[in-house]
Each structure stands twice: as structure tokens, then as C-alpha cells.
Amino acid sequence: MNDIELWHGDYLELIKNVPNKSIDLLLTDPPYGIDLTPQRKNGKFKNTKVFNDDNLNWLDEFVNEAYRVSKNVVCIFCSWQNIDKFKIAFEKKFIVKNILVWNKDWFGMGNNYRPNYELILLCCKTNIVSKSKNKSNILTYRRLSSKKMLHSCEKPVPLLKDLIYELSNENDIVLDTFMGSGSTGVACKNLNRKFIGIELDDTYFEIAKERIKNT
Fold it and tell me: Fewest 10 Å CB contacts: which of 38, 115, 187, 196?
């Protein structure tokens, strides 16, 4: 394969082109199934909805495909609202090795106990040994300000680089089935990993393509 391959379309169709047990690390940030609509007044992404975020009907088939294409490690972002559903779905095929916490170091929208973290389900077929071997399962990386974000759910590149560095090796193949604005691809180029990114949305696919090309 080429070092970088970007595929435009529905991941459930395109992932069928990925050979069995060919992916060293599947790292992705899928819809959380929480029907999130950013509401901040005058916000950059006000009323912008994530496609397919209103259901988890896709989850079981996704787990099956993830198991088929992965050599071992799968890393999936999710939220507290549906972490139970994600965990149950992945435990049908994988060992759930840990649930990592991304500490955003920045309060989100809301009141009372305002959200300041997201979760990352760390799964494997056999076992996982991170490079550092003794890292905490709390990863603190400041979330991007909305002014700098290209996608309403964009993750910071340093956080993705941390996960990619710890869970893969140079020249390994990393797959992101929900590529968004291409942050995982940028992190892979920085760390000399091969990358396959899949994105359905026309606008975000073009943003990711241009962004990764210019990295």
C-alpha cells in the first residue's frame, strides 16, 4: 500500500477492502450515539450534528469488521453516556484491556458538574504492552479551542500521537474508520506510520486530504 491512503465513502462498505489481520492499530473516534448538537451561542459549530450520532445500530457490525482486519489492538473513543454499550459490544470479540481517560484540561458546556473528559476503550485480541509499560490510564492534553477546530469533535494531535506511539511501531499501518478532519493521519505522518483514513462527509474528507498533504 501507499504510506497514506484516504478513502471517501461509507466505512462499512470500504472496510471490506481491508485484508484480514492487516491493521497494526485501529484508532478511531466514531459517533457516540448521544445525538449531540453543539449549542454554544455564536459558536463555530452551533447546530452542527455528527452524522449517525443518533443511534448505535452500526456498532455490532463495526466490531465484527474491526476484529477481522486487526492484528491485535483497537482503540476507540467514546463517551460516558454509552460506555457500557461500547464495552459490551467489544467484549463479544475482544479483550477489553483498559478504559483510558482523556482529561481535556478544559471545562465543556453545561452546568454543575461540567464535562472535562472523554473515554477511550482499549481492546486487544491477545495482550497489549505499551512502549512506556507503566503509563497512567489518564492522558491529559488540552482540548483545542473552538476557533482552531476544523471539526466539532476534533481531537488534539498530541493526544493521538501519544496513543499511536505507545501502541504501534514505525511503518505500522494505522486505520481510522471515522477520519473527520484528518488528525489521526497528521499524527501518523509525524510518527512515520502508514495510514488508511475513511470519511463519509464530503467537506471533512477534503479538509483531511488537504491537511494531511500539507503536514
Answer: 115
